[in-house]
Sequence to fold (222 residues):
Amino acid sequence: MEELLGRRLNSVEEKYSPRVIYVSGPLDIPLKGIRVSVVGTRNPKHRERARKIAAALVRQKITVVSGLARGVDTVAHTTAIEEGGRTIAVLGTPLNVFYPPENKELQLRIMREHLAISQFPIGAPVSRKNFPMRNRTMALVSHATVVVEAGEDSGVVSQGWECLRLRRLLLIHASLADLPWVKRMMEYGAHLFRYTDEMLEAILENCPNDDITVLEGLPIDL
Fold:
């Protein structure tokens, strides 16, 4: 069933939003409270960093958003659940496809207890272009994006640019400061952080803790 929610998106959000989203899970829509994407490489060297970041967000009652990919995404979701917080998975596949396959049980749990979002209808083909599109939607769903760990050609680069394009707060771990794309993003407003308290201070100062969701105005298939 489709329903229209609340206010119209602003012009930037509307330009970059999907026409319809498909959701599964018990979290209330409109979504409430601050939501922060935690993203990074599929082969992290610093899993504990990702865990500490997600746990710090949960302690502030911030919803952890990620893309259910291997690596940092998986750590972010599982930490949010283990710490008793809320998490949202933004998928690059339809809701009935499990990718990566080893995250099937995690995806099912999120769909039962939290929220999974996809812009791809059941039966839609899965291709590489889905995932940059997913990153755009993840940036749209979130008030801020935190990049934990990434390389020169990481897929999170696309989310970083989408975050800036949507005028969202973008926080990048200081260990990545020498990467060319990080330097470029800083010219457009990205911020570096090294400690979780720095990250939290920036989020709490710049992100509205209110009942307005960036999903309002989108058709949703429940």
